[in-house]
Amino acid sequence: MDSDYEEMGSLDDLPVNVKVFNDTLIYLPYYVPPNLELTMTNQGMSLREWIRQLCSIPDKDIPYTAEIYLTAMTLDTRTLRNDFPKLEEVLIGFREDEEDESDNVNVRNVLREFLSNVQNVKLCDINFEKSRFIQHIGISSLKDLYFYDPINMNFDYLFTLNAESCTIETDQIPLRDLNRFFKLWMKGSNPKLKKLMISCDTEITPDWNVLLKGLRAEEAEAARSKKFFIINCRGIRAEIEVKHLGTSASVTFNVSKSYL
C-alpha cells in the first residue's frame, strides 16, 4: 500500500514495505497477525515483480491461493492471470450489507480468469438472490466448494452440484431439502459427490426423523452422534452422520469408495 495506507490501484505501484509471515495469512483490515516475522523494504520492485519473484521459488508443494474481497477491490482482475501462476484455491468475500452490479461484474471477471484452473472455491457472505453467477460455480468440476454464512441460500442448488466435496456453514439445517437430496442420490444423482457437510448454530435439537423419512436407512452404533447408512441404485454405500452438541448441529454425508 502507499504511504497514506490506501489500497494500491495498480500492480506496477511500488509498495512502501513488504511484510513476511511464517504461516498462512488471512487478511483483515487494521489487524496485525501474531505470526509476523519481519518487515522488508520494497527492494525496488513493484507489486507485479514481487508476485513473479515469489512464484519463481521452485517448490512444488506450495499451494497458491488468492483471497479477493469485493469491498476493497481496486485492481483490475483481468490483468491478474498474467502474473499469478495457476491457483489452487480462490476465496471471494462478498459485501455483508448489499451487493451491487459492480460486485457481479468483478466476480464474473475473477471466475473467468481463474475458475478453469482452481480446485477449491470458498464463498463468504454470498447472497443467492443477487448473485447471478452462482450456477456457474456449482456445475464447475471442483474438488471442494465451501460456503460461509450464505444469505437467502436456495438449497435446490445442491441438486446440480458437481464438486467432489461441499461444506456449508449456515443458519439452519434444511431437513426436508436434505431428505429429498438423499432420495435423489439413491436414484443415481450427484455421482461425483464424495462428501457433503452442513452445520449451523442452534440450541434446539433438529428433528432427525424428518431428515430420514423414507430413506430406509440402517442405523449404526456411534458415540456422541447418530450414524445411518443408505445405498444407491449403483450399489454404492453412503454414511449419514447427524450430530447436536450444545449450541451446534451438523449433518455429514460421506460416500463410500467401494461397491456392495
TrEMBL record:
Residues 134-198 form the Sdz-33 F-box domain. InterPro entries: F-box_Sdz-33, Zygotic_Embryogenesis-Asso. It comes from the Eukaryota. This is Sdz-33 F-box domain-containing protein. It comes from Caenorhabditis nigoni. The gene is Cnig_chr_III.g11277.
